[in-house]
Amino acid sequence: VGFSEAPEKNYVWTSRDLCSLVGVVPVKHPALIDFAETAYDLGIQHDDWLASVVDAGAPFLDRGLGVFAITCQRPAKPGPVVIDQIHARLGPGDFAERVQRLQREVDMSLLWPVSRPGMPKTLSEVSDQHAPDVFRLIMDRFPFAEDGIGFNAFDPDGRGIFVISALPEVSSLSLKQRELFQMVAAHFAAGYRLRRAIRLEAESQTPV
Q: 2-50, pLDDT tens digit by residue?
């Protein structure tokens, strides 16, 4: 598992309407605009894009417990989800080790139902709907948090990225909150697909 840990920055906001992702961030707030611009920025090198997106999202995603990006391979049919790279912002120093322990100790095929692409939801919400036992299997290995929320982007071949914010309590999103994070997720996925399309086009034109 690859792991990168960004230099610590204090992104804990004092304004109550912005300090937590469970609050509704104003749609035109500069933090959301910065995130969208970063997602679409083709000037960022391929290897730096994911870290840059996480950094841009930290001001409105971080609840003080960390924001993480995980790349994975998810099979088309039920099977193990393989995590292969991690980027952490403001999380605990042993986060990568905890992910590795998760993959050693848990049948990763159990994560297949809760990792499906879809509307942004908390882990407790998606687990309740698709695999109730998985929630505790995951959270017991990340005791610094009680829940998490994430959004994702996937290639047709199952290659995907999750951006996850750790939550201090078990949570569910209101309709308005879900709409906000669906907007954020749409920009993230569109930026990811745009970069992928350009990369594949460039690779197809490269002489063998």
A: 444 444 333 333 233 333 444 445 555 788 889 999 999 999 998 899 9
What number of residues does the chain have? 208
* CA–CA dist 171, 127 (Å, integer): 12
Q: CB atoms < 10 A from the CB of 133, how many?
A: 8
**What is residue 161's three-state secondary structure?**
strand
Angle subtended at Cα 46 by Cα 197 and Cα 53, rounded to the nearest 5 degrees: 100
Alpha helical stretches, state H, 41-94: 46-61
| Nearest alpha carbon to residue 115 among 145, 89, 150 | 150
Radius of gyration of the chain (CA): 17
Instruction: Beginning with the edge strand found earlier in the chain, give each strand of the sheet holding 147-154 in spatial order.
Output: 2-5, 82-89, 67-73, 159-167, 147-154, 121-122
Using CA atoms, how far residue 75 sits from 70, 130, 187, in Å, is: 16, 17, 24
Q: Encoding tokens for residue 207?
A: 């002489």
Compute how many other C-beta atoms are within 10 angstroms of the C-beta atom of residue 6. Answer: 16
